[in-house]
Task: structure prediction
Amino acid sequence: RLLGRQVSDLKSCPLLEIRSCGPATMEPCPIIGALWFVVIGFMFFAQHHVCDAYFVPAINVFVGKMKKSPNKWLTRWGDEAVAGATICALGCNGPEMFTNLIALYTGSDAGIGVVVGSEIFNLLIIVGLTVVSAPVLPLSIERVPFARDCFFYGVSIVLLYWALLDKAIEWYEAYILLGAAAVYVGAVYFTEDLVNAIPALRKNPVAVKDAEAGGDAKKKGKMHGIEVEVEEILHSRMADAHQGGAETWAIDPTSHGIYAESVEAQETTTKTGKPKRASIGFQFESPDAMLGPVLKYKDLKEVVIKEMGVIDLEFYHNLQHVTLRLTVPDAQKRDELLKNIEEFSLGRPWVHGYDATIVGAFKHLTHALGSPEETIFNKLCAIPEFIIDGLLKATLFAVDVKDITKEGRWPLCFLGAMFWLAIFSFCMLEIANQINYNIPALPNAFLGITVCAIGTSFPNAVASVLMSQQNKPAAAIANALGSNVQNVFLAMALPWVIYGLQTDSKPINQNVAGITEGVLWMVGTLFMVVMMVFFPPFCTLTYSMGPILVATYVVYLIITSGETFGWWPPLVN
Result:
């Protein structure tokens, strides 16, 4: 009787439909579909966090080892441009690559959409925001890398359209795209040799000398009379996070903050006769350094004590996260340094040892919830961060390269991060399916090309703004273009090759509805950026071009949404 009453009650529920041939099934509900957007946002955060905390650190260890290699051919793999186009491209395009891979196994239509949407987002939003955020305008573009990346991006668009023209991917098409990735890597690897062989393309001698001096990311210096090694780490998926430049540093903690001054800057004065000061790892002679001329104690949130005399000072300012890594081999001097930092910071930063296990994640949660210095927003964000961080620390604690004693395990950390990226990408696609089920007006292909593409690429947009504020806008644009090239050659081709190997190289059917229009948008946006660079003054971008690019992306979203909802017919049938 009780069971009968429950079934009777359920029949009156508008959200459930009782079928005589099976169990109750939930009918589509727009409210539930809207709630799924919150969950998919959580998946975007999870993807970003696994990249920031494990994927990119493992890549940086590899890059650091290559930089220190005695073999000159291996050393070049540690070069910022080469690493950015190869191993760092995995960190930048990892979410898109795994989304496309999982989509092949689940039959989702969002896989290609995520990659195509990311291409358009990267070119319009990342380049547009980079120009707007640049401290010095007009923004000068490096001619050779820009021409190279635009050429290969154009080739990637043509090859992508060719491969999808028959609505199926043949085994040889996947291998041709993957082979093109190898050709692109080779082009990046030998670009420096080409430039040196052609006098008209060579950089000025001063720039070359500065670049050669930037091979070691650690700087020798003194802090309150204590000799330390300094390394600045920018948390970003866009490029190698370790900022180069071997210099001698004079680091002075005062009650106002931590001043960082190069020896060269001490000997050079401004027009007013004052010495040039700037923050760690940023344009020393510029007042527009990312965290200002002083690393302020109000931005110092954590002091993490690690093994082998390493101390990490974690600075957070708005969306910027920078780590200042100090190495003090002498234990007594290390204690003295910590005492000085604690004294001047008035005890506000959280001083603790690094714990790679889930216990460390729990300590971080309790500190965030109990600290009076944290805002309500940060306290709310600490809960989902704990869920993700707890999962990662519980499984990857033994290979966490942020524990410097485990840096030799970077390949295992890399593989572990890839595993979790695959899991989170699978969850993201399943959530997209739930949104589509509850809101049928939003097809998976549309969700992939808009919501999922923006969600997976947004951290790259933030990183581009930070790099631009460091007075490195040209590097941000180069990374965006290089990322787009590898988005096709790696994020699409590699999953196709892997899937083909498991299906006896049978053709892989693809839903290519709207692909022609997507390719035209890719070609059109590339043409727009190239024309802007050719517009006088040559090889520069002015401030007005930034808002134009961002507005073009808004127009793209409006047009795509209107086509999806039937407000107007597709631009291309």
In short: Residues 214 and 385 are 35 Å apart (CA to CA). The longest helix spans residues 30-67. The longest strand covers residues 226-234.
